[in-house]
Structure formats: structure tokens, C-alpha cells
């Protein structure tokens, strides 16, 4: 459905469509690398950096970071610095997940999403038919889950039973968030030229 609507939706939503495409690609690459080299740490760690940057670009396209360009640059530099430090300086890109980085960008994404929702509430209107609201809800759900999982790993990495219980919920949470994203794509507003063309030709 996203590919069908890609040429019709407003430009401000195209970074989110890129986000969905990257997520699908990462799943495929991760599946293949597990089959070939028995783990997908490299692809997962690289994807987390790309995902964090794309999500920041989503909020830029929606206006927040466009109005706070210095903050946007600071966030990108912070992401790059923490990722390089954890994966290439002190960590092992090939054999561990970058938990500190995931915790950081998940926290920032939650804060950005809450800020966007507050803005949308002030605008009024039916939030459940608002694509930005639905996307932010999806971000909050999956990122809060990431904060819990990565926080648990950082605080008590040897507590395997607790970690396994938390990870078992991922399939259900991921499925629900994907449904929310699909609904968001359905409600994405069309480009102004297409909208007015339909109105005048009706």
C-alpha cells in the first residue's frame, strides 16, 4: 500500500516511507546474514544508525528540526559519536548489539514523538485519522520497548530469564506497531496538486 501511495503523498511523509523500506530491507539482510555467517550483528548495528538518522529526518520534514537546525545538527553528531565510540572504539561491531546507542536514540525519539503529539493536540482535529499522530504512537511504543530491553541488558546482562521474557513480547509489539504504521500510510494526506485536482474535477 505504501508503494502504491508513494507518488501521491505529501513530500513531508516521504522520509517515513524510506524508513519503512529500510526496515523491510534490514529484516531481509538480517535473515540472510544469519543463514550465512550465523549472526546479524553487523547489519543490525549499521541499520540502527541509519534508522536513527532517518527518524531524525522525519521530524525535520515535519518542521520541528527545521525550526531548530542547530539542535538537529547536535543530535546527528551525538548519534554518530556514540555509535562510533560504542561499536568501533570500545565495542565489537561484529559480536554485540550497540545497546547504549539504541537506548539513546530510542529516548530521543520518544521525546520528539511526545513533542509532536503535543503540537497536534493543540491543533485539534481527529488524531486517530492523523498520520503523524499514528506514526508517533508507533515510535513511542517500539522505542519504549527498546528502552526496557536495552536498559535491562545494560543493568543486568546476566539475567537471561528476564531478558527472554521481555524479548518474547517483541513479535506481538512489532506486529501491532506495523498495523499502526499501515493505518498511518492509509491516512497520509495527498499532495496539494492532486487534492485540488480531484476537487476541481469532481
Report on this model:
The chain crosses the membrane at residues 12-34, 46-63, 70-90, 102-121, 133-149, 169-189. Keywords: Membrane, Transmembrane, Transmembrane helix. The structure is a single chain. The chain has 202 residues and is mostly helical. The chain has one domain. The chain is 79% helix and 0% strand. The chain is built from ten helices and no strands. It has helices spanning 2-5, 14-37, 41-61, 64-67, 69-89, 99-123, 131-155, 160-168, 170-186, 192-201. Helix 3 (41-61) runs antiparallel to helix 5, helix 3 (41-61) packs parallel to helix 6 and helix 6 (99-123) runs antiparallel to helix 7 (131-155). It is globular and about 45 Å long. Residues 194-202 have low confidence and may be disordered.
Q: What is the SS-derived class?
A: mainly alpha
Low-confidence stretches: 194-202
Residue share in helices? over 70%
Q: What can be said about the biggest beta sheet?
A: none
Number of domain modules: 1
Summarize the structure.
This protein is mainly alpha-helical.
Write the layout of secondary structure elements.
Elements: H1 2-5, H2 14-37, H3 41-61, H4 64-67, H5 69-89, H6 99-123, H7 131-155, H8 160-168, H9 170-186, H10 192-201
Helix pairs in contact: 2-3, 3-5, 3-6, 5-6, 6-7, 7-8, 7-9
